[in-house]
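Workshop exercise sheet. Pairs work together: one partner reads the sequence aloud, the other fills in the structure field after running the prediction. Swap roles for the next sheet.
Pair: D.N. / O.F.
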Amino acid sequence: MDWEKLNREEIKARKSKELIKIIYFCLLVFFLLPLPVSAADTSSPKELTNYIRALEKQCAKYGWTDIKPKEIPWEYYRTTQKKHPLLFVHFGDSEKNCVLFLGAVHGDEPPTVYLMLKLAHYIKDNPQIFKDKCIVIAPLVNPDGFFAKVPSRVNANGIDINRNFPTKDWHAEALKQWRKKQNKNRRYYPGQRPASEQETMFQIALIKRFNPQKILSVHSPLNLFDYDGPSSDLDSFENWLEKISKESNHPLRKFGYFPGSLGNYAGHERNIFTLTLELPSSQVSKAKEYFDKFQTSILKFINLSVTVG
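Structure field:
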């Protein structure tokens, strides 16, 4: 028996195992620890500039001439399958009253992009709004779907970002519900594993960095307000929301939550006050009208003080 050869092979096997452990540890740190959200990604400044130009071109195409994305001090973190930078802007630095706004989680809901871009402009021009607050706006979470030849709900990988969050019930329920309740409708496909998408990880990173007490995700066209958790202060928040619903003449309905959804991940599992604003339609021509309709409600949401006990 060649003992020397055996020893060499054993040493080689041990080194391979150690390397695998190191790689696994690095991946664990990368995905689970709070990550700094900055412009340190694969996009170059030129690519970011080109992306902003493409966004301005799309705004002009939709008739949103009052929107100038290049005037906003954007940051970005991660890029999509199509190499679109994932943009956000933040105003203020208070840790006690921080709110996160999300638009276009589904790319075929374009008025949500207008609302978030318009809000960013409005807050930039009115700095008193973010005094003693932190306001974070990610206007276009799913740019691949938004910029597609035919805008799509899913991203470039065919995955519904709002079913891809790593909720506790994802492995047991996400694919099962997609098969049974959605009849394998590709518009709602959650992916083969949770948090597989850059767009999902982008939102998770924003939540980890800014630790918001409130989240407002804007969608269309179901025409409702929907509240997802936490249950600890459910009555007081729903009372406030009922008042806002009446003031804005916008229905308040319990739409339910799904495995892998933001409401489940942030509201139910992390006790963040999570509200969905569903606009009445996805018509781009109605975007300005919707901002005017909901501006007051959005500003009240920013000023709402929440304490989770």
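Discussion prompt: The first strand starts at residue 75 and ends at 79. What would you look at next?
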